[in-house]
Amino acid sequence: MPDDKNQSLRISADKQEIDLKQGVVIYSGDVKLIQGTLEITAQKIHVRKDKDQEEESFTAEGSPAHYQQQPEAGKPIIHAEAGTIHYNVKTEQLVLDKNVSIEQNGSVTKAGHVDYDIKSQTAKFSGTGRVETVIPAKPEKKE
């Protein structure tokens, strides 16, 4: 949702390591990040902060890491998974890498790499293999 970035950010994990000098916080062990409708779950999440100490980017790693978010009111939730998920808060860019799978409204697209612009809701799929999309058939209406 467009308002997600204005919501409070909550992160829970089994462990947390902080390097204030480098502006890095590492959460590990069953990590869950929630901000509005945005949810990222992973085995490890690195949070990098800029010099103003505002959250700048998140890198989630997992087998796989999971992402979900509702793009707009009334639109279906986007579910994605990948080995690595990188999210830049300021630019609203999402980069998914390694065995990417994205599902929305029953359609599933798989690729090796995806660049997704959350603001414009545009995506570029690529990778070493082919990109595959499955769109489910619509059931016939019986009268």
TrEMBL record:
Pfam families: LptD_N (PF03968). The keyword Transferase does not apply. Residues 49-73 are annotated as: Disordered. Gene3D superfamilies: Lipopolysaccharide (LPS) transport protein A like domain. Residues 11-121 form the Organic solvent tolerance-like N-terminal domain. The keyword Chaperone does not apply. PANTHER family: LIPOPOLYSACCHARIDE EXPORT SYSTEM PROTEIN LPTA. This is Organic solvent tolerance-like N-terminal domain-containing protein. It comes from Cellvibrio zantedeschiae.
